[in-house]
Amino acid sequence: MAITDDLRKTFSDPTPLYFAAGTADLALQQARKVPGLVEQLRAEAPARIEAVRNTDPKAVQEKAAARVKETQETLQTKVTELFGALDADLKKVDLKKIGETAQDFALRGVGVAAEYAVKARETYEKVAEHGEHAVRTWRGEAAETIEDLAVAVEPDPAPKPEPVAVEDEPAEAPVAGNPAKKAPARKPAAKKSTPSAT
Question: What pTM was computed for the model?
Answer without folding.
Answer: 0.40
